[in-house]
Amino acid sequence: MTARKPPDQAPKPGPALAEQVDAQARRKLRARRRGSANVWFGLGMMGLIGWSVAVPTLVGAALGLWLDKYHAGRHAWTLALMVAGLAIGCFNAWRWIVKEDKAMHDDAEDDDE
């Protein structure tokens, strides 16, 4: 008698399928907790970044005007302090954007696991 070969069977769903289902379930739960980001959220973030640049710029200009008015010297301070405020504001906005980008990428990596 010849040995019979077992019939070809479809591969059984193993841990890979279970891990995919688990990751998808975690993504859905996280999305429910976070809520959806809509147009107003995006506009609010643009406003936040705008104010983080505008406020230090205006503070620098106001401080420069005050120095020019009450402590006049050889150099005008208004433009210099306004540019310094702008640089500080841009640095703050850049730092905030990098932080948010990192948080989004960390969330995406968690979703892939």
From TrEMBL:
UniProt xrefs under InterPro entries: ATPase_gene1, ATPase_put
Alphabetically list the UniProt keywords.
Membrane, Transmembrane, Transmembrane helix
**Superkingdom, natural source:** Bacteria
* Transmembrane intervals: 37-63, 75-94
According to the UniProt record, where is the region Disordered?
Answer: 1-23
Name of the protein in its database record: AtpZ/AtpI family protein
> Which species does the entry assign this protein to?
Rhodanobacter ginsengisoli
